């Protein structure tokens, strides 16, 4: 996608140096565009934990580059031991997104094919680049597959703008490029399909307000920021045509884990007969579990993400302020699970399917 008109990815090798990975520091958006350089596993772990980078696809790609850095810095006589330690550190950095472990395990398999120390390093670098490129291509394909439906819906509205509601950020910033939930939006906008996006602010970290709104603005997509609780009201009054969200993990049966509050949007959409679509690449499926509510680990983050808010003051100063009494504790569950029964369809790089085990297996039978 573009930053100030320039094509930009969310992660890349600095000056094509495989020992230095550069990423956009998403904590500073939308008020500052700053990049950070990662040179070892500890720095990659910190970037994932403190949300310098976030989003399922980008977490996976960053972990893949983290493993390439681990291979380059591992001791020659203790290579497997150092690599195994790095893998455990990265997998433990965040618990919910399945792309993380998928990318690390894929790297371990790729590196193991090397015969010499230098071959193993070269394979690690190659695989990291492949994972990043595949992530971008998968997201591009998601948008292409969704485009015919959006065209059909636009024609049915007589050319009036399609009103799309999204929650959190499953955009370009959450992947290497294009995004999952935003890829259909960008493809439709570029195809001159009139559309408008309702952007949930997405408390507590405000990824909708800070990231999705910034992305859409950079790409020229019409949008309005709304409070998280406005979605149901807009649906009741016919101002939402469809909901598109991303996901951090999808079970074998089609249950979906996404940013906290997604489940409530799905319930409101169901009650108002509005289609609810979930977008994801194959790497986000977790076929080892079936019941999302019971089995998907839900990350609980620092309570200060709820108790405080970060933003720009009238004088331009960036500052964190507290919004509750000093003694008030908070609970901060980062995700919830939307059961498959509430999902109209899953949109993937291979097209759409119902959110059920049989349909998912038929779409990806060669990968199972």
Shape: globular
Question: What is the name of the CATH architecture of the largest domain?
Answer: 3-Layer(aba) Sandwich
The CATH superfamily of the largest domain bears the name: Translation initiation factor eif-2b, domain 2
Q: Report mean pLDDT, rounded to a whole number.
A: 95
3D architecture notes:
This protein is α/β, with parallel strands linked by helices. The chain has two domains: 2-134, Four Helix Bundle (Hemerythrin (Met), subunit A), CATH 1.20.120; 141-367, Rossmann fold (3-Layer(aba) Sandwich), CATH 3.40.50. The chain is 40% helix and 18% strand. The protein contains twelve helices and 18 strands. The strands form five sheets. Strands 8-7-6-9-12-17-18 form a seven-stranded mixed sheet, sandwiched between helices. The protein is globular and about 65 Å long. The mean pLDDT is 95.
């Amino acid at each position: 996608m573009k930053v100030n008109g320039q094509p930009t990815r969310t992660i890349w090798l600095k000056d094509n140096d495989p020992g230095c990975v550069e990423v956009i520091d998403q904590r500073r958006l939308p008020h500052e565009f700053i990049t950070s350089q990662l040179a070892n596993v500890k720095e990659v772990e910190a970037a994932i934990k403190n949300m310098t980078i976030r989003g399922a696809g980008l977490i996976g790609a960053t972990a893949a580059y983290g493993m390439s850095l681990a291979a380059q810095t591992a001791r020659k006589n203790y290579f497997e031991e150092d690599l195994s330690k790095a893998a455990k550190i990265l997998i433990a950095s965040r618990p919910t997104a399945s792309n993380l472990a998928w990318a690390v395990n894929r790297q371990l398999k790729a590196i193991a094919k090397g015969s010499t120390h230098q071959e193993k390093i070269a394979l690690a670098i190659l695989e990291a680049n492949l994972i990043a490129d595949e992530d971008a291509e998968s997201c591009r394909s998601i948008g292409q597959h969704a485009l015919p439906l959006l065209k059909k819906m636009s024609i049915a509205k007589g050319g009036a703008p399609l009103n799309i509601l999204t929650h959190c950020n499953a955009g370009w910033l959450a992947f290497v490029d294009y995004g999952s939930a935003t890829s259909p939006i960008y493809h439709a906008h570029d195809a001159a399909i009139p559309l408008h996006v309702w952007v949930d602010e997405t408390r507590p970290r405000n990824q909708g307000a800070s990231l999705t709104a910034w992305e859409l603005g950079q790409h020229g997509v019409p949008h309005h920021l709304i409070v998280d609780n406005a979605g149901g009201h807009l649906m009741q009054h016919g101002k939402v045509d469809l909901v598109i969200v991303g996901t951090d993990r999808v079970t074998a049966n089609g249950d979906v884990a996404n940013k906290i509050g997604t489940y409530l949007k799905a319930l409101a959409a169901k009650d108002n007969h509005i289609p609810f679509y979930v977008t994801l690449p194959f790497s986000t499926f977790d076929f080892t579990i079936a019941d999302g509510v019971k089995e998907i680990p839900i990350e609980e983050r620092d309570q200060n993400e709820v108790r405080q808010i970060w933003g720009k003051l009238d004088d331009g100063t960036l500052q964190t302020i507290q919004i509750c009494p000093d003694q008030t504790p908070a609970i901060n569950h980062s995700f919830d699970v939307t059961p498959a029964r509430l999902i109209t369809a899953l949109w993937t790089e291979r097209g759409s399917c119902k959110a059920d085990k049989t349909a998912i297996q038929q779409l990806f039978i060669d990968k199972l």
